[in-house]
Amino acid sequence: MLTLIRDANIVTQNAERQIIRGDLMVRDGTIEQVGGTVRGSADVEIDAAGDIVIPGLINTHTHVSMAILKSIADDLPFPQFLNKVFAVDAKRTERDIRAGAAQGCVEMIRSGTTTFLDLYYSEDIIAKAVDQAGIRGILGWAVLDQQFTTQSGDPLENCKRFHQQFKGRERIYPAVGLQGVYVCSTETFLGARDYALENDLLLTFHLSETRKEVSDCKRKEGKRPGDYLSSIGFLNDHCVAAHAAWLTINEVRALAAAGTKVSTCPCSNMKLATGGVAPLPEMFQNGVTVSVGTDGSTTNNSLDLFGEMKTLSLLQKANRWDPTVLPAQKVLDLATIEAARAVRMDHLIGSIEVGKRADLVILNGKAANLRPARADTIVSNLIYSSCGGNVKTVLCDGRAVMLDGVVTTMDEEKVLLDAEDAANSLLG
Ligand SMILES: [Zn+2]
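Above: the input record for the complex with zinc ion. Below: its predicted structure, written as tokens.
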């Protein structure tokens, strides 16, 4: 099947970070030509004159099925927030999880996210929603010590079963998740690591989100979380550590040495007022691959990476009193090519280049908030002026999952009503 996107401003995110005006040709899901004019017709032709095409965005930390729990625990101190969310979460049924995952997928498609890294239990249910949505889900089954879990059975065994059941499916990538040092023993960490490395799976976990997590770990293990995970040999190049907000330079160096990647979650950290700011400049200096995550909908409460990118840039600038610390181009990198690197898929996605899979997002270049439209300000406009609402069309793996504002893979109205029903029955 041949798809042609005509006359677009293509923000390639290739090595030269070129922005090319012209046509984009996709054959059977693979990008075949970037720029120039393609003669002849195609099976699908999209007129993108004046519009902006970017690589599909990649959200490297979320809990997608919590989308129906948004706004239930806002403006609370952290312990009360946790109590409220855990109480509701413990009551969730399969139906709630399915409804939440579908709602979250719609939100992500509408705001230009084509790949996400999830951390939750019941990823088998979430996988079905992702499959229907037509986007890519890297689904990390949450592993933790049995004494702390609401899962039936051993979480690591559940994770293995999920992997065995779903491996090899298109766009579904089973992964291993770990809740964090506060509910995972050394044995749990190492068991999860062994299984992930033996099977070449991504390994994702919460790291140093709060100051309490750090002080509790120091008391229990005699070390800060990053130092502790390094000392037990857990850290490796399949790891994506979410938050990484309370790190010392020593811990940053340990992540760098192990090849561990980071997903920074600025909105979640700021909304919960957990105080730490991920030390991105030091991570860059030491060669840590950094990407961006929204975290779940109870702590954000949005899955829109455009909002996340702007917030990330502002937080880092404000925190360092330095407007040069995270420029617009670099922020876009963190949500595209660097994120693809973080999830070990940069050979497939993360930029618009010949030979890569066609995960593409078309934004309405005529929208008032994206004008004046000038080639040299497109990237700044994307980071500081745009929002998910500017997204018109989304392709994942060459297939249009949203076309001219209409989600094509799911009955959006039904998904939103189901989510509302689930929220109502769960929350009363
Ligand atoms: Zn999280």
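Notes for the reader.
Residues 61, 63, 119, 206, 242, 295-296 surround zinc ion (CB under 6 Å).
The mean pLDDT is 97.
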